[in-house]
Structure formats: C-alpha cells, structure tokens
TrEMBL record:
An aminoacyl-tRNA editing enzyme that deacylates mischarged D-aminoacyl-tRNAs. Also deacylates mischarged glycyl-tRNA(Ala), protecting cells against glycine mischarging by AlaRS. Acts via tRNA-based rather than protein-based catalysis; rejects L-amino acids rather than detecting D-amino acids in the active site. By recycling D-aminoacyl-tRNA to D-amino acids and free tRNA molecules, this enzyme counteracts the toxicity associated with the formation of D-aminoacyl-tRNA entities in vivo and helps enforce protein L-homochirality. InterPro entries: Daa-tRNA_deacyls_DTD, DTD-like_sf. It is found in: Cytoplasm. A motif (Gly-cisPro motif, important for rejection of L-amino acids) lies at residues 138-139. Its main location: cytoplasm. One of its GO terms (cellular component) is cytoplasm. It comes from Ekhidna lutea. Homodimer. Belongs to the DTD family. One of its GO terms (molecular function) is D-tyrosyl-tRNA(Tyr) deacylase activity. It catalyses: a D-aminoacyl-tRNA + H2O = a tRNA + a D-alpha-amino acid + H(+); glycyl-tRNA(Ala) + H2O = tRNA(Ala) + glycine + H(+). This is D-aminoacyl-tRNA deacylase.
Amino acid sequence: MRAVIQRVISASVSIDSKVKSSIDTGVMILLGIEETDGQEDIEWLCRKISNMRIFPDDTGVMNKSILEVNGEALVVSQFTLHASTKKGNRPSYIKAAKPEIAIPLYEAFVAEMQTHLDSEIKTGEFGADMQISLVNDGPVTILVDTKNKE
C-alpha cells in the first residue's frame, strides 16, 4: 500500500464539475492499493499517518501530528501510484489491485483512519474521473510504502 501524503491548507475533489468533498487544514492522502495488501497494511499506514509530525508547532518546527492540530483528511484512491516504468514509455499497472480487491481495502482504510482521527474522513469516488484541487502547505509531501516499513 502506497500513500502520498500532502499537508494542505485546503483540498477538494470534484466529479463532473461538482465538488464531492473538501477539507481545510489537514492532509490530502492519495492511496494506491496493490494485490498483496491487507488489514495489517491498513492498520500500520493509518497509525503512521495519524501520528506523523508534519504540522508546525509554535516555533515553526514540524513537531505536531494531524491529531494535535485537529486537522481533516481527504482520501482519494489512486492506482497509478503502483505504476511500473521500467520498460518502455507506457506505465504498467500490473501491481495495482483490481477493483474487487481494492474497493474493500480502500473502504477499510477510510474506516480505520476515521477511528484514528475520530472525525469524518472525506473521500473521492473509487474509479471515477476526479479533479483534485489543493493548496499544499510548506510544501510538505511525503511518500509512504507499507512494503518499506524498515
């Protein structure tokens, strides 16, 4: 499971020119799920994200978590995070999970994040053509892969 985590001042996801979800201060999470991911990946990643100290304290040092700043989260599924570019110029998405595997894992990830943050998690729509708008704060953008825990 891969996640691109962006600290944002605001973020939104639109479908057919209509805003589906939006947040203010918090994190935009682009989530890539692969065939071998499971509940252990979900739990580890949610714990990592919710405790990640990427928000500034009173002195401007990144020393606070999303929990400590009462931030919001917007989670959007993005299979392209598992693109392989080793051969040719057209990325291969063979490692990305098929919808029958990815959708339940995506929904479980959102539910687990909700328990960690104790607030509603905003989402995109799995499989939809979405437009993402965000104001990256910092900029702070972090890539986390559950296959590289150590």
